[in-house]
Amino acid sequence: MILENPILSVSDWHNRARRLFPRGEAFIAGQRVPARSGATFAKYSPLDGRLLAQVAACDQADIDAAVASARLTFESGVWKEQPPSRRKKILQRFAELILSAREELALLETLDMGKPITDSLKVDVPSAAHCIQWYAEAVDKIYGEVAPTGPSALATITREPVGVVGAIVPWNFPLIMAAWKIGPVLAAGNSLVLKPSEKSPFTALRLAELAMEAGIPAGVFNVVPGLGITAGKALALSMDVDAIAFTGSTATGKLVMQYAAQSNLKRVGLECGGKSANIVMADCPDLDVAAHAAASAIFFNQGEMCSAGSRLLVQEPIREALLKKVVALAKDFSPGDPLDPVTRLGAVVDDAQLQCVLGYLRSGQDEGARLLCGGERARQDSGGFFVTPTVFDSVTPNMRIAREEIFGPVLSCISFESPEDAIKLANDSIYGLAAAVWSRDISTAHRVARALKAGTVYVNCYDADDITVPFGGYKQSGMGRDKSLHAFDKYTEIKTTWINLG
Length: 502
What we know:
Number of strands: 24
Helix content: 25-40%
Structural class: alpha/beta
Number of helices: 16
Largest sheet: 7 strands, mixed
Radius of gyration: 23 Å
Distance between the termini: 64 Å
Strand content: 15-25%
Oligomer: single chain
């Protein structure tokens, strides 16, 4: 089902949604297959509770089959030994097919996890395609090295694909997070077993079909839906997986590390949770711009972002003025029908996540934070899972809403007196994924940015992004980097070849 009309109304999207029937079978060795046990789980849409499909509940047997398929194709050389120019063309074709199926993929993404259709169509699908395209272009541009040895030896340093890669991706950006793994894994010549979240499996399964249509050999790209406690655990424990890449919560990331150690000491790359600090100094160059960025940093994608600017640290002289602007902007993110192109805030992914967010809203008020707006469930008559954009003031650093990752549209405002106070507050977290600083003084901006313990620091902006820059965190936000050429470090082995010329 490939949709091509670029201008669709809310009724158009609803009509297409009624005619879309996602397939839930796994994709192993180039074929759609049920779980070997025959087990399935029901996937409901967070928009209205409708049943989307029964999805294969893959377990150990299915993981073993997918890994065996990936191993067979890797060792055969059918993909890794393709000339780089050939792999490049196939991946370019894959990116083109993603764009050609953009409306189908966008609709699957929105029905699956609740984000606004405009975001799915204009952000997620193009970003995923661009990622694959970028790594396709990188295939034939990765050079080896020659070590500066003496005249009696020649030492070369080359990269080789690591082998079979297992990838476990989250439900908040199913397409983009999958592409961040798929692009460098396949560009490097590896074979892949992808485990999407059970909360959002459909676009990953469709990507596997498009990859094969593009010319990626059967068995190189496998997708195994299932629960984390069964399929995810089995993949991380597999003795025949050479590397595991995970994006998700810190708690689950720790389990993945344990499983890797308990099995074959496979290479591990983790991109985990965050509680990012967005620091606004009194000399902020433009308070309106900062307010818009602060609102988008927490309300975009329903706040379901590991890099969300969930802690707004504001210097006391401008606190009231900035918060007034942010609260006013929160009205632009009122929860709406995710299939309406004008909606900016969709549904959270399921009832469990909704209850989690509502629990934090109660906790914030119980611990003494001042609720400025939001703080309640919305659109209950829709049958879906919606929560209003929420802003808390008078938050102290020890409150749960200031320390724990909520993964919802909940902003906690903490005031500070000096740049040194802001640095201390920002770094007082187990996480270190992202941060931002707003200041007119370039020296202050540089000094604070340098002191922040975060993988990405934005200056006078938030959530600026490009595939050319690495993404990952410090501390319990993980290890290793997605995006950019640095992603190849997770999916390649570095080999030294020493040739005696004496």
